[in-house]
Structure formats: C-alpha cells, structure tokens
Specification:
Length: 155
C-alpha cells in the first residue's frame, strides 16, 4: 500500500515536472518510478520508465545518470530473463562508470559475472561491442539541448 501511495505521488510529481519543462527532474522522476516498479516486481513496466529516463539523460548528456539507469535496466532485464539486453545495459554502465572513475564499475563487473553463465560468449562479446559503440558516440557527439530536440506533436 505504501508503494501504491508513493506511485501516485510520483506520478503527480512527474506531471508537474512535465508542465515546468524540468527535463533533469523528469529523468530522475522516471528513474525513481522505475525503481518503485522494480521493487514491486513490475519489471517490464520498470524497463519502460528506465527507457524514458535514459532518453532524456542521453539528450542532456548526463553521463552519471545514464550509467545508473543502464545498471538498473540491466537488473530489470536480468529479472525478465532477457540476458542479452541485461548484458548490453551492464556493459554500457560499466564503460561509463569506468570513464567516470566510479567505484560502481566493480559492482557492475559482479553483475556481468552473475549473468555470464546465462549467455554465450559470442553474444556477450557482441553486446560489449555495441555498448562500447554507444558510449563512444555519447562521448563524441555534440551536446544537444532539449530545445534542439524535435518537438513532440500533441494530439
């Protein structure tokens, strides 16, 4: 019941952030919404919220936010037995945490090790390469402000 109440309050907060164009706050709100859904076992819905957060974080070039969201995506995909997607997310998080010199890199190494028996080596290598390409593109792409992003049609 506390989770349900928290979800209602979080959804109200997200509406306010949307109205005020608080993009960083919106990304954080989507991430927290994903965390609540994850904790209540709603892993597919959590993935949807993490993806929304990730889209904004990428546009804002929030490397720390991207790394944390990717790690949460990895955990959610692991719970859904989507080990290839979990692997991709974990490798992206690991690469970013490494570049940020974060101690979370070793935590992600443990997560990758935990799923290594669930996925074949070729797929793991492929997902690692995809993650590295994603991070390399993030690091070299020009910063995009939210005002540069294409407008979303209402309707």
């Amino acid at each position: 019941e506390e989770y349900e109440e928290a979800l209602v309050l979080l959804e109200q907060s997200l509406e306010l952030k949307e109205e005020s164009d608080d993009h960083a706050g919106l990304a954080t709100g989507y991430h927290e919404h994903g965390n609540l859904l994850f904790m209540t076992g709603k892993h597919e819905e959590a993935v949807e919220q993490y993806e929304k957060a990730l889209d904004i974080e990428v546009q804002l070039r929030d490397m720390q936010g991207i790394a944390v969201t990717q790690s949460q995506l990895g955990l959610a995909y692991k719970e859904l037995f989507q080990f290839d997607e979990a692997c991709l997310a974990f490798y992206a998080a690991r690469d970013l945490f490494h570049r940020l010199q974060s101690p979370n890199e070793s935590v992600i190494d443990g997560a990758i090790s935990a799923i290594s028996d669930m996925i074949d080596y070729a797929t793991m290598s492929h997902q690692k390469e995809k993650a590295q390409a994603f991070v390399a593109e993030l690091m070299t792409a020009p910063t995009i402000t939210m005002t540069d992003a294409p407008a979303v049609e209402e309707g």
